[in-house]
Every structure is written in C-alpha cells, then in structure tokens.
Design brief:
Blueprint: H1 3-58, H2 61-78
Length: 97
C-alpha cells in the first residue's frame, strides 16, 4: 500500500468515526427533548385527571343534595322566626239581661 492510500483510508475512517459521534450526540439530544415532552404530557394528563375527579366530585348527587339542604337551612335560619301567636284577650263573659 502506498502512503497516499494509507492516508485516504485513515481520513475516511476518521470521517466515519466523526460522523458516528455526531449522529450519536444528535440522537442523545433528540431523546432528551422527547423525554422532556413526554414529561410535560404526563403532567398535563395528571392535571386533567385531577380536574376530572374534581368535576366528578362536584357532580355527586349526594353532595349536591347536601349543599342545597345546607343553603336552604341557612336561608331559612336567617329569616326571623315566626312570631308567636298574639295572646288574645279572653272575651269577657256577657251576662244575660
């Protein structure tokens, strides 16, 4: 092998190794970005689940009935109590003439 062929083979191998390193670095960077996006998607899914659970809790018929009952009791409690019936004067007995 001549010196020229040796240099060409070594330069070719060097370029090949440099290309592999660049591709691996780019792949690692892309994997990191994908994992960041997946993490954000998981956080969004978690918030969605929490919101759905809160909505389901608020739709609970027993809870709605209890809130309505509490509100009605509070409203009725704010009104003044019915005044006691006024005491009537007892009619005087009339004597017959």
């Amino acid at each position: 092998m001549t010196l020229f062929r040796t240099i060409v083979v070594m330069v070719g191998g060097l370029l090949l190794m440099l290309t592999v390193v660049i591709l691996r670095a780019e792949t690692t960077r892309l994997h990191y970005e994908v994992s960041q996006c997946e993490r954000r998607a998981d956080e969004c899914r978690q918030r969605l689940r929490e919101a759905e659970l809160e909505l389901a809790r608020l739709r609970n018929p027993m809870l709605i009935r209890q809130k309505v009952k509490d509100t009605v009791d509070e409203f009725v409690g704010e009104k003044p109590e019915k005044p006691a019936k006024p005491v009537r004067d007892t009619p005087k007995k009339r004597s017959r003439p």
